[in-house]
Design brief:
Layout lengths: L22 H4 L9 E4 L20 E3 L5 E3 H7 L2 E8 L2 E7 L9 E2 L3 H15 L9 H4 L13 H6 L16 H9 L13 H5 L17 H14 L3 H13 L5 E4 L12 E3 L1 H12 L3 E2 L2 E2 L3 H9 L3 H6 L10 E3 L2 E3 L7 E5 L3 E6 L4 E7 L7 H17 L1
Antiparallel strand pairs: 1-7, 2-3, 4-5, 4-15, 6-8, 7-8, 9-10, 11-12, 12-13, 13-14, 14-15
Length: 389
Amino acid sequence: MRGSPPEEKNQVTLENWRTPPFNRWAFHHVRELIPTACISRSADSVWSLDYQTRDLMDLMFTDHENKSVKVGQFLRSSQTDGFIVLHQGRIVTECYFNDLKQSQPHILMSISKSLTATLAGILVSRGLLDPARSVSTLIPEVTDSAFAECTLQHILDMTVGVDFDEDYLANEGLITAYREVSGWKPPTAQTIGGDLRSWLVELKKSGHHGGQFHYVSPCTDLLGWVIERASGSAFHELFSELVWQPMGAEFDAYVTVDKLGAPRTAGGLCVTLRDLARFGQMWLNNGQANGKEIVPRQWIHDTTTHFDRCAWKAGDSLEFLPDGGYRNKWWITGNDMEAYTGIGVYGQWLYIAPRAQTVIAVLASQPLPVDDNLSSDSMRCFEAVTKAL
């Protein structure tokens, strides 16, 4: 995207923005490609973070091939755009690559799910949502769909029996239609005139609810709809009011929306690196941020301790998390640091290690949506950093 206008072969478009090399520019220029809604910060109450700088770039760890790799070398080779480490609430390391600026929001992909579920947890504490309640009691539009008999907890834990294959490399089928109705891809003849909410209610049931972990991103877009219906507020306004402003975010964030304003809460949140780290620190602080409680302590305890191992092992769990689990849109690692993490395709991470009092946030624009070797090496890198601190 150099020059004005750039050469046609270099032009980032709605068709190519998720693919390399175009995603290297697109992931921190999303609002120039897709309609968005602003998640406003409060200019009067920024949560100040102290520094205790330490150079971690030469720290060594052993990768999946049993080779010794420096952290800095790994970050560059894995198309990292931003890397920040907080230890005991202080910034230890903060690095930017690929022209990403401190003030520039970057797409989180599926870390968006962890942020969305946090807002749901706040509404649960206020009595506006009940995890045991059927989703159809709030959204009767889903009565004839896959979501007819599922509960909010099924949605939160990805144990909904729904006919959907999360194949990121597919060029046809439901996942392609999903991108089109979300405004993430130009519509085809089959989806012209479609919108995200109308598409969600057409999804069909497969199997039963609650029995196994089945990762389906549209379930979190339904959660965003549930949040809006229960609160009577637009998602971006409510997230600003209950999370972003009281947390003391330094910069505005935003979320992609479809043509009717429905938010892509499964993957469309865009935030700055430092504010993502603040969000992780809030979780590490048992919901405390900027001198106040934002997230109920009980919600964090439930998330980190009540995951269903049987459902995890019965479903499409991650190979590099054999002792892990999934609860309330967070991945539980099962490692000795008691870490849990948000994970987004193309290399996004928010890694929280309570026993090490460490938060690590990574923004990236990797070539492949999922690379098991890179994911495994990322975890190895994080574990080396936490142990070093």
